[in-house]
Specification:
With about 775 residues, the protein is mainly β. A hairpin with a 5-residue loop joins strand 31 (about 430-435) and strand 32 (about 440). It holds the Pfam family CADH_Y-type_LIR. Its main location: membrane.
Length: about 775
């Protein structure tokens, strides 16, 4: 209220000041300079007159925002040539002339008719001229002058923004710059103190202050804590007139946020955490979570967790969940309730980013104790060994003992265990197992040469809970027994010439034994005793599981005997020893002087003197040509034969269509009425024509013959048709008489006539559209 009264008083004083200034200005503007001039003589006695300006004035001034009842007198114009008789007329032109500024054309007084605002326009340029009232002849040259609008303090300061936002770190020192606010004043800064601004703080003490001249806001209190208060609202005032009374002011709001620094260490809300985990859990499962609270935010509040001590360091691990800032305790290794039931861990939580400025606040870490209880679970049986390798001799027979597997229930109740064989691993059911003690036996003979290893799986399950089961692999090795005799490993046949070399081996044979080397490390070759007395061939054991055959004769004749069979006994060194007699075949063939085979009686060896390459190529070419001919012949036979005569659609003289419809014959009297196909004229007993020659001759009637010179072809044809129809002796020689009767009232000119006289398959369609 006091401010409003002071403002009204200031405006009244300002108005009185403006009025006084206007009166002074009017007197100052009423200058009346004298018109000066002189005469000069020109050429030939002519007198020249040179006029000087009849008026001179300075700038005019007018105060803005004048709200008086009468127009404001800006100034007065007067010329030296004006004698006051009213013959001089004053003219005003330029900016605002006639609208804002008007002139009395007789007295030259200039008035402002409207309120002026310096902030809109600071000055106006006008032109004045004195002319003769009667002739409008210029008496003075036009002259420009300026009307300046004098400023008054009518505009309050305005800030660039209505609201400001700024940030400053918490715990900043006193005097830390926060933000600078700036206001502007539309008044004239060169005239008085209307635009001289002073800043002050209205709200926000005692936390902040502002510099009066610059508008810079600074912190005023130390150790401001973001965790205690984060947001502050400050009001800044800008006042003109140098901040003195009567000045105008403007305000703005500044929102200041304290940004976070890492000035708080993490703290656990409790000293001990209790957790539990089942012994059936697998590594990686979560046992529980711990969380240390840090009031800082962002990276200043990031916490990492580590296990630094405890008897569960090897069994558990901890990871950091950065989304929830929690430490996740996980199982690292399997735990056993029966072995150890409780574990203790010491967990540390520490900040990742530490600000050295606040290191004196103490260690940025905290520790807590974690107790983990192991819960008992119904576990499956456990085998004493992760896998088993058992042995059994082949041919041991059903019921032979192979070995035993053993498992037990690790739980405290020690439930009985039952054993079974996974039949997917023993499809042939070679083995069986005792459900009570896990003893494995055979169910049939095993042959090592057929299968040396058997891999099965044994399942151990609890008797009271069949779902709790364990599986173990069992590999059973079948031990070898010397039960296989040696036999030839190479072909048991060879070919020799009729005159072999007796000192060179004819053939080297080798043998194989299905048993392993433990049952026959070396094979022995020999001939039966009865072959010793036959002087044809002999055998030499090379003692390397091979033997060589030699000829004891210098010549053989394949025409006398073409084949020899040599029995060879092969035995091993096993226990008991095994032996076999193998027949070796030797064929005798004819050879040339170089030992090349020429001929042998057996067909398998006659091909050695086979055809030459050229002959074989010729034979193959002939076979290919014959195949091509056969293919072409078959292809041509399969092609559909084309008709020899092609009937055009336009040729309707005689078209015969055959149908695969077998007629009823003479005995079929119900299929159709044969009488309808007969000539109606034959009903009266007269048949005009037959297919056999009659016994009597028919003489044509002379009255039906056309005139010899007649050129009417239609009459000629009709006459001939009538004669043919009435002549019983004439056979149907003409093609137009190929059927007995066409039918009456035929519009299309043709008829389909089935033949009733034959019981053969088919029917005839005859067109008689053209009688010629």
């Amino acid at each position: 209220m006091k401010e409003d009264i002071c403002l009204h008083a200031a405006l009244i004083c300002l108005g009185m000041l403006c009025y006084s200034l206007a009166m002074v200005t009017e007197k100052r503007n009423h200058t009346r300079p004298l018109l000066h001039g002189h005469h000069e003589k020109g050429k030939e006695g002519q007198v020249l007159h040179r006029s000087k300006r009849g008026w001179v004035w300075n700038q005019f001034f007018v105060i803005e925002e004048y709200t008086g009842p009468d127009p404001v007198l800006v100034g007065r114009l007067h010329s030296d040539v004006d004698s006051g008789d009213g013959n001089i007329k004053y003219i005003l032109s330029g900016e605002g002339a006639g609208i804002i500024f008007v002139i009395d054309d007789k007295s030259g007084n200039i008035h402002a008719t409207k309120t002026l605002d310096r902030e809109e326009r600071a000055q106006y340029t006008l032109t004045a001229q004195a002319v003769d009232r009667n002739t409008n002849r210029p008496l003075e040259p036009p002259s420009e002058f300026i009307v300046k609008v004098q400023d008054i303090n009518d505009n309050p300061p305005e800030f660039l923004h209505e609201n400001y936002h700024a940030n400053v770190p918490e715990r900043s020192n006193v005097g830390t710059s926060v933000i600078q606010v700036t206001a502007s004043d539309a008044d004239d800064p060169t005239y008085g103190n209307s635009a001289k601004l002073v800043y002050s703080i209205l709200e926000g003490q005692p936390y902040f202050s502002v510099e009066a001249q610059t508008g810079i806001i600074r912190t005023a209190l130390p150790n401001m804590d973001r965790e205690a208060k984060e947001e502050y609202h400050v009001v800044i005032q800008a006042k003109d007139m140098g901040g003195h009374m009567g000045g105008l002011s403007g305000t703005t709001k500044v929102t200041i946020m304290l940004t976070d620094v890492n000035d708080n260490p993490p703290k656990f809300p409790q000293s001990v955490y209790q957790m539990s985990i089942s012994e059936a859990s697998i590594p990686g499962e979560e046992a529980g979570r711990v969380k240390a609270k840090d009031p800082d935010i962002g990276e200043n509040g990031l916490v990492t967790y580590n296990i630094i001590d405890g008897d569960g360091v090897e069994m558990f691990e901890i990871t950091t969940d950065y989304e929830t800032q929690e430490g996740v305790v996980k199982l690292k290794k399997h735990v056993d309730y029966e072995t150890k039931r409780i574990y203790s861990l010491k967990v540390e939580a520490a900040n990742i980013h530490i600000d050295p400025k606040f290191i004196s606040n103490g260690p940025f870490k905290d520790t807590v104790t974690v107790k983990i209880n192991v819960e008992d679970a119904d576990e499956p049986p456990i085998f004493f060994a992760p896998s088993y390798i058992l042995e059994v001799e082949e041919n041991a027979g059903p019921g032979a003992s192979v070995g035993r597997v053993h498992a037990k229930d690790p739980d405290a109740k020690n439930s009985p265990v039952r054993y079974t064989i996974d039949r997917h691993t023993d499809l042939d059911r070679y083995f069986s197992i005792s459900p009570e003690d896990g003893s494995i036996t055979t169910t049939k003979n095993l042959d090592r040469e057929e299968k040396a290893w058997h891999n099965i799986s044994v399942i151990a399950s609890e008797v009271h809970n069949r779902h709790q089961e364990a599986k173990v692999p069992v590999a059973i090795k079948v031990l070898d027994v010397n039960d296989n005799a040696p036999e030839f490993a190479t072909p048991n046949e060879t070919v020799i010439c009729e005159k072999p070399q007796i000192h060179e081996p004819l053939f080297t044979i080798s043998a194989k034994d299905k048993d392993n080397t433990a049952n026959g490390p070396r094979l022995i070759f020999s001939l039966p005793p009865e072959m010793i007395y036959k002087p044809n061939f002999t055998l030499r054991d090379n003692r390397d599981n091979t033997a060589s055959i030699y000829a004891k004769r210098t010549s053989f004749n394949h025409q006398i005997q073409e084949m020899y069979r040599l029995p060879i006994v092969i035995s091993d060194g096993g226990s008991p020893p095994q032996s076999s007699t193998n027949m070796f075949t030797i064929r005798v063939c004819g050879c040339d002087g170089n030992g090349v085979l020429i001929s042998c009686n057996p067909e398998a060896y006659t091909l050695n003197a086979g055809l030459s390459t050229g002959a074989l190529i010729a034979i193959l070419a002939c076979i290919v040509i014959l195949l091509v001919i056969v293919v072409l012949f078959v292809t041509l036979k399969r092609q559909k034969k084309e008709p020899l005569i092609v009937f055009e659609e336009e040729d309707v003289r005689e078209n015969i269509i055959t149908y695969d419809d077998e007629g009823g014959g003479e005995e079929d009297t119900e299929a159709f009425d044969i009488a309808t196909l007969q000539n109606p004229d034959g009903i009266n007993g007269f048949i005009p024509r037959k297919d056999i020659k009659p016994e009597y001759q028919y003489m044509p009637r002379p009255e039906l013959r056309p005139a010899p010179n007649s050129v009417d072809v239609d009459d000629f044809i009709n006459t001939r048709i009538q004669e043919a129809d009435n002549d019983p002796t004439a056979p149907p020689y003409d093609s137009i008489q190929i059927y007995g009767y066409e039918g009456r009232g035929s519009v299309a000119g043709g008829a389909f006539v089935p033949s009733p006289l034959s019981n053969t398959s088919g029917a005839a369609c005859v067109s008689a559209g053209d009688a010629s």
